[in-house]
Design brief:
Number of helices: 11
CATH topology: TIM Barrel
Largest sheet: 8 strands, parallel, barrel
Strand content: 15-25%
Strand order of the largest sheet: 3-4-7-8-9-10-11-12
Distance between the termini: 47 Å
Order of helices and strands: EEEHEHEEHHEHEHEHEHEHEHH
Number of strands: 12
CATH class: Alpha Beta
Oligomer: single chain
Radius of gyration: 22 Å
Helix content: 25-40%
Structural class: alpha/beta
Length: 301
């Protein structure tokens, strides 16, 4: 039975639809609206369907015993709580991101890490929400995002099958999309476990299944598409050598161009599984086949 088709903005996600490609900006903007806009440019230029940010309320997401620990940052040495605030965009900045994405013709959404952040992002009317793998067991947060009535994508990295089942049972499969993931940055190929895509597709037949990758290469994301992922997400960056914990597992513009282009080629190449003789094969068939289907031999030409 084919999975349900779920609409996100003006796109449809599910079996038989083009793969929905999310460029995860996350925190790779390093608190700079200018960098965020350049990353939006990259995603739009290369043909991605959406960009995604991360939204946190620092006082809720950072344990209190870590607030005053000092660390080196691009802005000098500061406490961790001050650093987390520097990495968050204001309502005005998100308003500019919303305007800029509309101008560029690309969707945007956010991973919210706490319930207050959901209320904050709601003011922009995003087409969907994403729950990070770290939030899979935070049922109140999942329910908060689900209560908006917008589609919710959940990632399943660092999770057991029981935890995935508990989350899905708690929030229901309506308007839900599930992404296979491994939460290692960057992730070695032997831990990607891409066959989990098939496992999830078999278990949740009415739910679009996708892939959120944190590897350094591109081939395994293409393999995920060939294995049936209906949407994919990869972190993007202007330069993998930039400051930040997610940069090394991210894709630069040249790689993103190849990633998107080859995904579209894979979609065309998959076909429908029905064997046929194509018009382009008639010439070679006439020239090269010595024994036609009626069993009569013909001379080679």
């Amino acid at each position: 039975m084919a999975s349900t088709i779920i609409g996100i903005g003006n796109r449809e996600i599910g079996e038989g639809r083009p793969v929905f490609i999310i460029a995860e900006i996350g925190i790779n903007h390093n608190g700079s609206l200018e960098i965020a806009k350049r990353l939006i440019d990259v995603a739009a230029f290369t043909g991605c369907d959406a960009v995604k940010f991360q939204k946190r309320t620092p006082e809720l997401c950072v344990p209190y015993d870590q607030w005053h620990i000092e660390r080196d940052t691009p802005w000098g040495r500061m406490t961790y709580i001050d650093y987390r605030h520097r990495m968050e965009f204001s309502a005005g900045q998100y308003g500019e991101i919303d305007r800029y994405c509309r101008e560029k013709g690309i969707l945007w959404m956010a991973s919210c890490w706490d319930e207050e952040s959901v209320d904050f992002i709601e003011q922009f009317g995003v087409p969907a929400y994403k729950a990070a793998s770290a939030s899979l067991t935070d049922i109140p947060l999942l329910r908060k995002m689900k209560s908006t009535g917008r589609p919710l994508i959940i990632s399943t990295g660092m999770s057991t099958m029981e935890e995935i089942e508990n989350a899905v049972n708690a929030i229901g499969i309506d308007n839900l999309l599930i992404a296979h993931a491994t939460s290692t940055y960057p992730c070695p190929p032997e831990e990607l476990n891409l066959k989990m895509i098939a496992t999830l597709k078999e278990k949740y037949t009415q739910t679009p299944i996708g892939y959120s990758g944190h590897e350094t290469g591109l081939a395994t994301t293409w393999a995920a598409v060939a294995l049936g992922a209906t949407f994919v997400e990869r972190h993007i960056t202007l330069d993998r050598a930039m400051w930040g914990s997610d940069q090394a597992a991210s894709v630069e513009m040249g790689g993103l161009w190849r990633l998107v282009g080859n995904i579209r080629d894979i979609e065309k190449a998959m076909g429908d599984g029905a064997k046929r003789v194509y018009q382009s094969e008639i010439g070679p068939r006439t020239k090269l086949r010595r024994v036609p289907s009626d069993g009569m031999a013909t001379s080679a030409k």
